[in-house]
């Protein structure tokens, strides 16, 4: 009876320890993802040092992968000089037998939380085609402004 109790207790202990390890691993992944998003939103130095990766987006129709946001130079909204802009690069794949057009958009907000524009572009892909893309902001991001990667949108038209 005591041996059976010890074996049960040992099994429960192992189960709890493995559950804690998985929980810690999951929390570390969430923390890493949030740190990555937070760094992208705040315009940290990683943007000026080669860019910040964005997770792939995949549907039954297309794949967007190897996406990266980097810092670039752009005209300010008054047209009187330059400021910091953003560039989005990546690869697009059409998984279907039809012509598709993807419109990619990441909104830009000023420091007051008002939408000031978007980093956007269009990608047209023939059936089963793959293509590299590069989009830049048309004007500089306002002082204290940021991209909101949580609102990254892709709309699709099929022809």
What does it look like?
The structure is a single chain. With 159 residues, the protein is of the alpha+beta class. It starts with a helix and ends with a strand. Strands 1, 2, 3, 4 and 7 form a five-stranded antiparallel β-sheet that branches. Strands 5, 6, 8 and 9 form a four-stranded antiparallel β-sheet that branches. It contains two helices and nine strands. A hairpin with a 6-residue loop joins strand 3 and strand 4. It has a domain of 107 residues: Immunoglobulin-like (Sandwich), CATH 2.60.40. This is Lipoprotein.
Query: What is the N-to-C order of secondary-structure elements (H for helix, E for strand)?
Result: HHEEEEEEEEE
The CATH architecture of the domain at 52-158 is: Sandwich
Mean pLDDT over all positions: 80
- Termini distance? 72 Å
Which residues sit in consecutive blocks of at least 5 with pLDDT less than 50?
33-45
Radius of gyration: 22 Å
Number of strands: 9
- Helix coverage percent: 25-40%
CATH third-level topology of the domain at 52-158: Immunoglobulin-like
What's the overall geometry? Answer: globular
Q: Hey, roughly how much beta strand do the residues contain?
A: 35-45%
Main structural class: alpha+beta
CATH top level assignment of the domain at 52-158: Mainly Beta
Per DSSP, the total helix count is 2
The profile of the biggest β sheet is: 5 strands, antiparallel
Organism: Neisseria musculi
Protein name: Lipoprotein
